[in-house]
Amino acid sequence: MIKDLCVHLDGSTGDKERLEAARQIAMMFDAHLSGVFVNRLPDLPAAEVYSYSASALDDMQRQAREKGDRIAATLEDMLSGLGVRHELRRFDVLSSQWLHTFLAEARLYDLFVSTLPQEDDHETVTLAESVLFGAGHSVLLVPPKCVSSLDFSTIVLGWRNTREAARAVGEALPFLKRADRVSVCMIGDDELGRIERVTQGNDIARHLDRHGVSVELNPLPEGKGVGATLLDEAELLNAGLIVMGGYGHTRLREWVLGGATREVLRRSEVPVLMGH
Fold it and tell me: How many CB atoms lie within 10 A of CB 85?
């Protein structure tokens, strides 16, 4: 059950959308909502430190903290109007530590909620990837135009027998149990025939049935690709949520999203819950 969720806040115009999405989910589960705001302090590269006096560095830090005070005050006002149990978690850290700080905080909740990053918003993409692969919990990302009214009555679940998909199913159970319709999509795989995919679908359907979730099995050809096929199916069924494993690999110690994961995050017009 989801009883403790967090939402990423940064003082930008996107905070309102993120908070509205998180508010609706908190209302669904009578959950506590924590807004996490990491206020970044100037962090100069070693080569530049000696070009600033100690007093100049102190002044830059002071201005950053004062800006953080103003942002935090605005966020407190926004949170107080949500009508759910809430708190603002503020951290003043050096810029080089912002991602590590947020990731450590995100591990303490049942669910991380944010808006789907736009293509040119590299920072939010980096944050979403880091939480997905490093927090140990699921990530729920909502397209900005969907946040006003979330409807999870119909869910499309992308399934294959992998650790990532199994994690997504486990994390999504609170949503699956509330849904009226759950379509388990087994999308074409060169290594598995249609019968084998249906067998895998039967296995996960049996597991979900024991949790009180009735599903319909939907073996699909890969067609334009796994990500595109899953998005097409969500549109066809008028689904309000896509559940899938989040795939990726490391390259020089940084995570790189897999093709299907990247495609869904880039193009989805409905909320996406991913587990890794």
Answer: 12
Hey, what domains does the chain have and what are their CATH numbers?
Answer: 4-142 (3.40.50.620), 154-275 (3.40.50.620)
Residue 153 backbone phi and psi in degrees, to 5 = -70, -25
Q: What pTM, to 2 d.p., does this model score?
A: 0.89
| Tens of pLDDT, residue by residue, the chain (276 residues) | 899 999 999 999 999 999 999 999 999 999 999 999 999 998 865 545 555 666 777 888 899 999 999 999 999 999 999 999 999 999 999 999 999 999 999 999 999 999 887 766 778 878 888 888 888 888 999 998 888 899 999 999 999 888 889 999 999 999 999 999 999 998 876 555 666 667 778 999 999 999 999 999 998 887 778 888 999 999 999 999 999 988 765 554 454 556 777 788 888 999 999 987
**Which two three-digit tokens encode residue 261?**
């994961």
